[in-house]
Write a structure and sequence with these properties.
By secondary structure, the chain is mainly alpha-helical. It has one domain. It is built from 5 helices and 2 strands, in the order ααααββα.
Length: 116
Amino acid sequence: MHAKAKESPSFRFHALYDEVAYAYECCRANGGAAGVDGQRFEDIEAYGVERWLAELAQGLKSRTYPPLPVQRVYIPKPDGKKQRPLGVPAIRDRTAEMAAVLVLEPIFEADLQPEQ
């Protein structure tokens, strides 16, 4: 995508939906806790990953995808005395965000100057 964006600045990319499966694999590799919906990777696999991905992609395509609130948790700071807030998005939101990054990053990087 980077090469295409560099070569044809006016070209429009429509591959976000194609990146959803790879984005899920990236999120799965990172692990992490369930978000506000309580859904874990094990739950998604029991439901059927392909089915879950198809539903997510359809929501994105139809522009009916509603992101969920971020779950707030507190983790200890290195000093052990205080805690800091951490936001944990739902897995489907992480997957949608990762798909967007996978598509947008190489496109926008093509417009950056080499020193940036």
